[in-house]
Amino acid sequence: MASRGKPLQDYMNSIETLTSHLAFLISVSTTYRYGREEDEVMGVKFSKELILCRDQIIPVKKEKQETTLIQDRLMRRLGSNAYPFMFHFPQTAPCSVTLQPGDDDQGKPLGVEYAVKIFVADSEEDKGHKRSSVSLAIKKLQYAPPIRGRRLPSSLVSKGFTFSQGKLNLEVTLDKELYYHGEKVAANITVTNNSRKAVKNIKLFVVQHCEVTMVNAQFSRHVASLETREGCPITPGASFTKQFYLVPLASSNKDRRGIALDGHLKDDDVNLASSTLVAEGKCPTEAMGIVISYSIRVKLNCGTLGGELVTDVPFKLMHPSPGAIERENAILKKSKSIDKARYENSCYANDDDDNIIFEDFARLRLNEPE
């Protein structure tokens, strides 16, 4: 046993000596794939990889750095061999987006993905090797502004037929400009038929628009749809007003090729890709990666000879900022209580029979469950 102990001790000492001359580096990289991997021939690459930031974590170069609460908890749990690090994404870094592949697609999916890579190197300038590195896939998501705003997107279009047949008017208004993932998109539709044609049916779509900036390619996909004959036919001289609801969800588009998702990690339930927010004064085409936008599209079908009347109303679909939903619910609750107090005070100001009857109906309305 003693004869075997010395070679083992020498081996351990040699490992410690070797390790002391090595450095552990960490980097955050993004890969922007804008073409299919199976189409890469003759050395042509349809992807671009960029190193966003890079630093050395062992040996420690910085004397002390600020850490987050989660990092402090992890360090206490993992012990002295845990080394914290922190990176900041550049403002121009695109959000994570994955274009859902089809059944026949091979290779890596198109989109923008991020990874944290830690590797062993001989020096700070060393790029490392795949066999001596560990990678962790991460997402970069963008939150919605803390306040949604009060603007109601709308569109008013008309379709003229011959001079004697008049016009068909379509007005579409949304109840919000910005929706959170999973919320209902409410579209208010008003049709005024001053023509001699009849509207046979109404179709509504939530359209996802994608722009691949690297190759200037644009395409659109329907991520929610509804067709109805309610109120139809809308005959000449008639009008129709109705509110319709659509819910765009990734779970409803699992088998559809080309749908843009908010990145994709293993066994992860993803959302549809969020709308791309562009800084004030900047053009959307200047943004890197895949630019995402949404609109509600409404079609009125006027038959074979009459054709269709179509309009699009843009809106944003995003993740709520932390605490945004709680703040909105608190504001709504406070607003309801103020309105209820104002109403009750106004009811008792003029105590007559008419007010008593009106008060009974109004109280029932105020106490209705949402």
UniProtKB/TrEMBL annotation:
Q: What keywords is this UniProt entry annotated with? A: Sensory transduction, Vision
Q: Which residues are in the Arrestin C-terminal-like domain?
A: 164-322
Q: Which family does it belong to?
A: Belongs to the arrestin family.
Q: Would the keyword Signal turn up in this protein's UniProt record?
A: no
Database matches in PANTHER family: ARRESTIN, PHOSRESTIN-1
MF term (GO), any = G protein-coupled receptor binding
Q: Which GO terms describe its cellular component?
A: cytoplasm
Q: What is this protein called?
A: Arrestin like protein
Query: Origin organism of this chain?
Result: Cyphomyrmex costatus
Q: Which Gene3D superfamilies match?
A: 2.60.40.640, 2.60.40.840
Provide the taxonomic classification: Eukaryota, Metazoa, Ecdysozoa, Arthropoda, Hexapoda
Single GO BP term: signal transduction
Q: Name one Pfam family in it.
A: Arrestin_C
